[in-house]
Design goal:
Shape: globular
Oligomer: single chain
Number of helices: 9
Strand content: 5-15%
Strand order of the largest sheet: 1-4-3-2
Structural class: alpha+beta
Length: about 220
């Protein structure tokens, strides 16, 4: 009888332990993250010619995507502007870990690695920067609300303007059909007339709406 009671006790204890074991938390971004990281691995290994449109599109579906943040990597910019090239190259790599489509990360990485004599890293960042800039440029001509540049983050728009040698003067948001258009005034030189460019922010709006729904 005593042995039978012991067996029942251990059986019940086993059921409780199994029932209490935690199951892995569901990650809704797992597939998207895997697709993006697998694609990125091919880019870094130079195993195929990169489709930068696809790279940017894959990135927007991942858990790494944070398009509404206007916070700039101040440490990276400080090292870059202070000619601290070794530190700058390291910080650029850190910045790019979760933001491999960052114009800021690849531009600073390109310049700082060139200054450090690291030609391999310099050429990689140059390749990525050129491809990403061309991807934005090919998304529209930016001259009207009917053909705006399609961007995926605030940082991308800011540094696309900056890397084209332009200075941001003013911004004005307007809606066209289902799209949000940022009408941006820029200057190439203080004495030159203003230039108006148009950027499609629809990806950012979609991200904001999706984030709000997930919080409900």
């Amino acid at each position: 009888m005593a042995n039978a009671c012991k067996r029942i006790f251990w059986l019940m204890a086993s059921v409780v332990i199994i029932g209490c074991q935690s199951t892995p938390a569901f990650n809704p971004y797992q597939k998207a993250d895997d697709n993006y990281l697998n694609f990125l691995a091919k880019v870094e290994n130079k195993s195929h010619l990169t489709d930068f449109n696809q790279l940017r599109e894959l990135y927007t579906a991942t858990s790494f995507y944070s398009p509404l943040s206007s916070q700039t990597n101040e440490s990276l910019l400080k090292a870059f502007k202070g000619d601290q090239y070794a530190e700058c190259a390291q910080l650029a790599s850190q910045h790019l870990m979760n933001h491999q489509v960052s114009l800021l990360g690849h531009y600073t990485g390109m310049v700082c690695n060139a200054k450090n004599g690291n030609d391999t890293a310099y050429l990689y960042h140059q390749y990525m920067l050129d491809g990403l800039m061309e991807s934005v440029a090919a998304s529209g001509d930016g001259t009207s609300m009917d053909s705006p540049f399609k961007i995926i983050s605030k940082e991308e728009m800011i540094f696309y303007i900056d890397l084209n040698g332009l200075t941001l003067v003013d911004q004005n948001l307007k809606r066209k059909d289902d799209n949000i258009i940022d009408i941006v005034t820029v200057k190439q030189h203080p004495s030159h007339p203003d230039i108006t460019l148009y950027f499609d922010l629809s990806k950012l709006e979609l991200f904001h709406i999706t984030s709000q729904l997930k919080q409900q």
